[in-house]
Amino acid sequence: MTAMLLGQLVEALQDDVVSVLSEGAEAEPRVAGVELLDSHEVVRATASGHLLLGAGVDIADLDALDSALRTAADTSCALAVKCDVPVAEEPLARIRRTGVPVLAVNPQMPWTRVQRLVTTVLAARAADSDHGGSPTGGDLFSLANAVAGIVGGAVAIMDTQQVIVAYSNLPDQPIDETRRRGILGRRVPEDAIPDHLDRKVWTSDTVARHQRPGNQPRMAVVIRAGEDVLGSLWVAFPDDAPLPECGPTLQEAARVAALHMLALRRQVDAEQESRDRALRSVLEGRSAQSDLPDGVCLPGVLVGMSEVVREGDEASDAGAAARRRAALLRLVDLTVLDGRSLGYEPAAALLGDRVYVLLPTAGAGPVSTGVLLDHLLDRARHSLHRSFVAVSSPTVGALSPLFRARRDIDAALDHLREQCADPGAYRTEDLRPELVLRRLVGAVRGDAGLRTGIAERLRAHDAEHDTEYTATLLAYLRHFGDVVAASGELHIHQNTLRLRLRRAEQLFGISLADPTRRLLLTLELAALTQA
User: Fold this and answer.
1) pLDDT attached to residue 313
2) How far is the C-alpha of 330 from the C-alpha of 313, rounded, in Å?
């Protein structure tokens, strides 16, 4: 990848992405690549002249900032951190003392988006240097036909998600069953994926030869933009013809294809941003219920994810809150990237401390949403070192149900948090009884007209006379009148429980034998004690 001056890179990315926080002590540095600062040990093995993306680095945490600056200084790299500008004097002074060039990244910009933008800019610079201007050869289909005409084979171009983005369609081209099924489905057939992912194709800088049993022989070359792998180009040849010496032609075709695929990637990123904005608008209730915003693809399954934070796991100071939010933003990135790689076109939004993802069911990928959720939770646990609870809705086909689905998901996440549920994937339909009860209790709590007032009288009496009628009745009702179980929960004798129940009926006019009054009392006590 061709290096470029840091100032030129900032200018290309524009102010809404990055700005210069400190220019560094030496002459203006050049940037030759980009690396995520996930592991200081891994980064220390990185070649100098890279831009290190300080994911999770809070500049208000001076120890974390110093560690990131030391790593950048040791590797002669520039550093990018998310922060609002202007920056407080103390962290800025520490940055300047190290002499490390530091960029301020817009806090709302996902790190994966920054990484892609930097890679794209550097790769485009390299392409301009190599080719002296714009890409040639028309679109990818024209390129595929041009290469097929030169080498005498059938060309297919795939991205890293095994999607066939272009193929040649010249007459009398060789074709086998794998190519036929791939073109019809616009994806690499599932049984051919292991061959498609052959390591010698993706790690080689030269053309690789490959033949799958029962298929025509092929030649393949990886498509790269600098260090970033974008896809691969494959050519199938007739069985009865020797493979031509066309390595230089295919390598040049891969370089031209990279420019077109970078443009496709930019388009995909723009479409992703449109989907994410539309989903946020719907979930916040800002979209008209009769309109379907561009980017919201229905029918789909809505998923809500919330971090599992146990008491004492992490202090509730500003630094901890910033780290939690950084983890949630990275979860959005992981969800979108992995969802797209598995055949979905997800929309994602971070609202408060929860991540919401809409997974369209039309044209869904080779794995179910349940399998995808398990995969995402596992990825989050290993990559972010945090655990999450995910709740999915039934299939939603319109905006109004989508908005209601968020309400159910939020109620389910609240319930699971209160129950200290284990991390994992849950469904609102499996939690429907608990959600109905929460809504009933919430309605009783919020509307005095739905209450008899007996729960308030019980609580007032307990407070004034130091009695325990409220807890006693709640335990008795919760155990459906089982005196043994209720007395065990309260750690009192069974006769003591019976005495309290009789006394409560006398004092407050309670009729525990009446099922209607028992139900009302249960709801009122639940509304009172869960407030």
Assistant:
1) 57
2) 20
What is 181-211 written as a DSSP string? HHHHHTB--GGGHHHHT-HHHHS-SS-EEE-
Contact (Cβ atoms closer than 8 angstroms) between residue 467 and residue 503: no
Sequential DSSP letters for 296-360: --SSEEEEEEEE---TTSS--SHHHHHHHHHHHHHHHHHHHHHHHHTT---EEEEETTEEEEEEE
- The residues of the chain scoring below 50 in pLDDT are 1, 42, 127-138
Classify residue 290 as exposed, middle or buried by CB count within 10 Å of its CB (0-12, 13-18, 19+). Answer: exposed
CB-neighbour burial class of residue 505 (10 A; exposed 0-12, middle 13-18, buried 19+):
middle
Contacts of 82 (CB under 8 A, 6+ apart): 54, 57, 104, 105, 106, 107, 109, 111, 326
3-state secondary structure 431-493: CHHHHHHHHHHHHHHHCHHHCCCHHHHHHHHHHHHCCCHHHHHHHHHHCCCCHHHHHHHHCCC
pLDDT value at residue 1: 46
Closest listed residue to residue 53, CA positions, set 15, 7, 110: 110
Q: Tell me what pLDDT residue 116 has.
A: 67
Strands 300-307 and 354-360: antiparallel
CA distance 6 to 32: 10
Token pair 């989050």 in the structure block, residue: 380
Instruction: Name the pTM for this structure.
Output: 0.54
Distance CA 508, CA 455 (A): 10
Predicted pLDDT of residue 290: 55
Residues 454 and 149: their CA atoms lie apart, in Å, by: 87
pLDDT one-digit tens code per residue, 422-442: 999 999 999 999 888 888 888
Token representation of residue 72: 């950048």
Confidence (pLDDT) at 392 = 95
- What radius of gyration do the chain's Cα atoms show? 30
Per-residue model confidence (pLDDT) at position 137: 32
The answer to whether the CB of 14 falls within 8 A of the CB of 38 is: no
CB 327 within 8 A of CB 305: no
* pLDDT tens string 304-321: 999 988 665 555 566 677
Distance CA 372, CA 357 (A): 12
**Residue 372 CB contacts under 8 Å (≥ 6 apart), including other chains:** 338, 339, 342, 344, 359, 365
Whole-number pLDDT of residue 125: 55
- Would you state the pLDDT for residue 197? 80
- Residues 6 or more apart whose Cβ sits within 8 Å of residue 338: 372, 375, 376, 379
Peptide bond into 189 cis (omega under 30): no
Q: What is the pLDDT of residue 354?
A: 94
Picking from 407, 405, 395, the residue whose alpha carbon sits closest to that of residue 360 is: 395
